[in-house]
Amino acid sequence: MRNSIGLCCSAIIGILPLAWLANIPDMPIIAVILFAAVCTGLIPHLSARYIAFGLLCFCWALLNARASLMPVEQWSGKPITVEAVMTRTDGKQNHDWEMVSVEGKVIFPPVGIRSRGGYLPASVCAGQRWRMKLQLRPVHGQLNEGGFDSQRYALAQHQPLSARIISADPITQRCSLRAQWLSAVQFSTQSLPNQGVILALAFGDRSAVNDEQKNLLRQSGTAHLMAISGMHISLAAMVGWLIARLIQLSFPAHRVHFRMPLLASVIAAAAYTWLAGGNPPAVRALIGVIIWLFLRLQGRCWSGWEVWLCCITGILIYDPLTVLSDSFWLSALAVASLIFWYQWMPLPQSVLTTKWFYRYPLALMHLQVGIMVLLMPLQIFIFHGISLSALIANLLAVPLITFAVVPLLLAGLVLTSIPWIGEHLWWGVDRLLALLFTSLSLLPDGWLEVDDRFQLLSLCGWLAIIIHRLALWRSSSFSVIALILSLVVSTMRPEKKDGSWQITMLDVGHGLAIAIIRQGKVFLYDTGNAWPGGDAAQQVIIPWLRWHNLTPEQVVISHEHLDHRGGLISLQREWPALKIHSPLRWAGHHPCFQGEEWQWRGLKFTALWPPDQPVKTGNNGSCVVMVSDGNFRILLTGDVEVEAELAMLKRRWDILHADIIQVPHHGSRTSSVAPLLRAVSGGAALASTSRYNAWHLPSGKVVKRYQAQGYKWYDTAQSGQLTIDINSDKWQINGFREQISPRWYHQWFGVSRDNG
């Protein structure tokens, strides 16, 4: 047993580096590591074998990472003909596929791809096989500190490519059994208000859950209950076990065997995983159930920690890219927290001996307190907040979902084709969900945004339990006080009083959002784009500000185009006192015209364009601002084009000199004339651009023009978030992809300069 646990630890240590490696080594280096592992394994010592197994797992992880990038290297950037099986669809334009052959050659394992925004020439459903001509693109996501990491998520989901469908023909139009089952349940529940949640619980399809329900689940900390995950798979396994035990009641005693319920539980868990479409959290839970079954059949007494280690090892060996999945770490830490909690803080004996109607509510309260306290560090790191109402909400939601909704839902799945019974079962599930959502809506808004200062402080729960259980407050009281004070002090970051400040160009896709940061406050230049149902402020700017504990005080809106003012309303909703400068002459806006000057926290802002008269609109009406601390200068240009650039140069050549220029109009050929670049005579040019944009920005000619004038070129499509640290006359630019978070899964995949 000890050897097995040692091998598990070696495997986990060997695979974990995949989460922070900057680059994946080439095959010759992997071969050298593999050879070293084999040689080490020949040493007749137990520790050498552990090291060898860890190195083998490290090689396995590297090979999986290289295999995940192979489709990007081989098939992106050119039209190819593939055969693919549809795995998920919204029935309209958004589909998930598994490519099974490319140019007539079978590929194994299949490669996951996504197609968005393209209609197919026939009705669609999961399970269909299509022959298509595709233009494949590597995964690429916006990269900002504290933002959602879509590149990491896509690789963890084994979907490294997105596809534009050029042509498509169905090979087989028959839907899979799961898709037929899903269609039958959709038909049976079409009149129910909570159909979207029912489909999420039954099939893992959360596309139909409305925004109001999603927000309520998030605010109450119960969103984990509405996606098929480890808890639901475990419930299915429990139902399978109970059914098998009931069947055994009719067996003669000599026919009853303990293996039958265990096998039935695995079969039930596998069936529910299949219904979930084999989504990664469900597959991981199924692997855990299978490993648990295997350990039970060994006839040994395994501790909770040993079972946990074996399950984590099995999951990581099955799929090393799981280390990139936030949901995996949430599940793994949740189980570890439960084991730790019940070992170090068990229920008092006085509670265990009380009557059941006291004991069970107290036990559930004890469980929820442990989960809330011990999972807080990871929740803050991933979600940048905690739900203050989660304790009360889960006290109601967990037993309701566990003991009422899921069993009734499983019965509905089995009996949905029986008209009267299926109809009333689904009605019962809907009413229970209605009761849950009504109860959650009565709770106060409990979501609390938390910034990065509180990450260390969130460990206090773990430390408090250890200090209490080991009675360290008696034997080492001074050390305990010093530790707690150090954690509290970590949240009290003093404002910088010196002349240092920062400028951050956020990666907002096609649009512009620049944050000037000084003394914990922010001056924004433009607010990014907007689209139906959202905007750049909600998606990027506000989460970034909250995570860094920054407060915006003023903003310049350069001009009226949506990709520059899209997030303004959301920002005003969060900070109503936000002072707005613009050339738009809108109510409440302070003027931003040529000759205007103002001070903000020791920085001087000078508007160089547009003139107050005549009125200019569109790109050439952009408010151009020079920001200076007396040593360093940056020119913010919005979307000005040639006409405005040349007009600014007349008689004002000398005042345009700056260290850095924000590239006008995202690097379009209609801007950045050579006389302007010579007048600015800067050292660096920063462009806010989006990969795969419809306008193929930035223009290659414009990039070369800047470089020919001695500028160093940076853009958000290549580097993600760009941060300029300024201290007097010294400054440095850091890109997220290269310096802030250089990870192999953050790299620019595909051709080196691909903007269309």
UniProtKB/TrEMBL annotation:
Pfam family for this entry, one: Competence
Protein name: Metallo-beta-lactamase superfamily hydrolase
Enzyme superclass (EC): hydrolase
Entry-linked InterPro entries: ComA-like_MBL, ComEC_N, Competence_ComEC/Rec2, Competence_DNA_uptake, Metallo-B-lactamas, RibonucZ/Hydroxyglut_hydro
Chief location: membrane
Subcellular location(s) per record: Cell membrane
Membrane topology of the entry: Multi-pass membrane protein
Record carries keyword Transport: no
Residues in Metallo-beta-lactamase domain copies: 510-691
Gene Ontology molecular function: hydrolase activity
Keywords: Cell membrane, Hydrolase, Membrane, Transmembrane, Transmembrane helix
Residues spanning the membrane: 31-63, 223-244, 256-275, 305-321, 328-344, 364-383, 395-418, 477-493
Record EC number: 3.-.-.-
SMART domains: Lactamase_B
